[in-house]
From TrEMBL:
It comes from the Bacteria. Keywords: Coiled coil, Membrane, Repeat, TPR repeat, Transmembrane, Transmembrane helix. GO terms for cellular component: membrane. It comes from Solidesulfovibrio carbinoliphilus subsp. oakridgensis. Residues 316-370 form a coiled coil. This is Tetratricopeptide TPR_1 repeat-containing protein.
Amino acid sequence: MQPVTREKGKTMPRLSTGMMVVTMALLLALASCREQSRTDSMAEAAKLVAEGNAKGAVVIYKSLLERDSEDKEARVELAKAYFVLGKPDQSAREAEQLAALADPPAGIHLLLGKALVAQAKTEEALQELSAHLAIDPDSAEAWEYVGHAHARTKDLDEAAEAYAHSLALDRKRVGVWIELVATRVLQNQIPEAQAQVEALLAANPDNQGGLHLLAQIQTMNNDMDAALATYRTLNAKYPTDIKSRYNEAFILLVTQGASEQVAQTAKSLAADYPNLPEGYKLLGLMDLTRGTTAQAVTNFERALRLRPESETHFFLAQAYERNGNLELAISELRQVLDASPRHLKARQMLANMNLKMDRTDEAIDELQRVLTYHPDSYEDKLLLGDLYLSRKDFAKSLAFYEAIPDGVEQSATAHLKKGLIFGDTGKPEQAEAELRQTIGQSPEFLEARIALVALYKQQQRLDEAASVLEAPGLSQPDVAQAHTIRAAIFLQQGRTDEAVALLEKAKTLNPKLATPYYTLAKFYSQRMEPEKAMDQYRQLLIQQPQSPSAHTALAAALEARGNFDEAQQHLEQAAASKQADAYLRLAGFLARRNKIDLAEQTLGQCLKENSKSIPALVTLSRLQLAAGDETKSLATLRDVAAIDQKAAIAERLRRETAAKRWDQAEAEATKFIELAPAAAGGYITLASVKLQREDVPGAERLLRQALEVEPASIGARLDLGALLMRAGQVEEANRYFAEAIAKSPKPAEAYAARGMAWQAAGQTDAAVRDYEAAIGLQRNLPVVLNNLSMIYAEKPALAGKGLEYAMAANALVENNPFILDTLGYALLKNGRRNDAAAVLKRAAALAPQSKDIAKHLEMASSDSK
């Protein structure tokens, strides 16, 4: 045998056969010891993981891999240990190495998927979990993590489906059961969530998470007693459960107010657990309840520093809102909704705050999002319908009202709103059907009965209107209101004694209801019994001493009687309310009494309280102009323009028209067209100026142009009809009037306009027919009543009716000199000369330049001597 060469020039001695055997035995023994050492190390690491010391296990697994980097089992266990340790990045790194092998170990795609879910790498996680499910489709754990992955991306439907699949495979997976219930809650599928949590607790009665979910669902169902009982069960079983103690106190706060028990819990939690937010949240809620909102903000902010939570952001938003910091409140709500897009109350609150800030479009957007997540939120459908109704978008509002089914709380109101829309759009039969359905669903719904009464009154179905208000089951205040409305119908029918009796009953049933007093006051005014009318206002002021409207109404009656000092006192008491209208009435009175300086001071005070009051600014500008200070007047008018450009244009147009500066007037009217070229209004206004300067062809051209840009314009049709009637083109004029009457949602006004056109053309009988048709549909048209009164006053057989209409017009518009003139003339024609003279003196004082009033006053004065 040749010697074995070790290196060049040297030889190694040959081993004997015996020596070789010994050497091999030693090598085998060494390998056996190493394998025994690895087995022990793996067992020790597994024991450490089981004991909760995953960190120690990581050290052992890494040591094994340093010895043998190809040890797949050690790397799998290392990846698992990292996952248990809460280090998904390291877990995923180890698992990825194994998944990339040609022969990856079993379950590695599941482990990698779990780590990727923890890293929020949802798409990659789902790929790995799908790879595992392709091998093991019945892996309950894999389906659980598919649910977790979808839950992270707020894909709640997919998450719930995956959790349900996992639970179907293994009913003992309590954690999955809890996740499924929580997901159903987030989906607002409360009945399904409740069924699942009840099944969970039937199998696991003491499960802490399940009991918490049950209490949450009970709270969402507004079953506060049950929720309170569940939290008390939790507190008995788990005394250190801070969340349960907090929630019990929260429910007590909601149901019983800021009680001493709640206060003690709040203080205890804050003192015992100063590094947890629950105590400070409760303290903040106590502050909110007590109205100390600044302190509430402080407590909620402290809670957020300890642990940012959507609930606390929501509470902080409420505190900011009550402090008037709407922008900060909106910012907090945005954080809530970023984390929980389905948060119903937060989105509703955000919508309402946008409404408060006149951001209607943003409010509509938020409400639409509410319906995306909560399609059965009928209160929000009702609100959306109302918002579109306020915009006169009847089609959209009807669509939302129609989406509210019968049987839910909001259905009666939806039918009412539909009835109102149909009534306003000239569909009385549909309106009646909807209102009848409302009353059928809610017999005590007085607003629906009032709407149906209004519909019947338009149709002159007065007996039916009165009967609608005879409803059992109404509350005492509603009965008082119903009596008041029935009384108004009786007055229209001439049943005055019954009406007065009902109004007195209404006052007894609800002494603070103002309408009966006003109705009686108007009734006595129409009967020329001013002392009785004023007595009604005084009775009302006993019930409502600070009522601005009662003070101003009494002041108007006193002024008409010449009791100027007392009238001024009541107007000053009304102005103490700081309401713009009350200031304006006082200023108007002072101006009529030639106390211009005081009137200007009153308007200045009004503008301190109501800086953007257009009527106050316009009135002040007029007073300044009347006093000869054109510079101040124009400066005030510029303030008007800064707030409302159209109001400023209208006032300048009024001035130019009054001064008969026609070119300047046309220039101002043209600005309305420039502001809204696709609307008829500007063309109608300019046409009016043309007519006043006798440019009839120019006016006709503009009115036809108005109909071209806005074919549905009722106003353009009425004005064009009047112009053509004036020009003798009766047939074409009537065609436009007929179209307006047919298309107008308020045909009474169209009849009135045609009546005026007939009267201007000297066709009195035709005018009377249209006037009577107008007030048959709508009684409160003072101009129509006034015109009819003057016509009837000239006919002895109808003079009494003429006086009735004159009184009705005066009751609608008090202290108008021209309506007072008609009333005085009607009194004169009915042989009441002294009353006529008194009324006409008042008219003459209000309009000293009127020749007609002066003529009628002379007639009354000469007759009364």
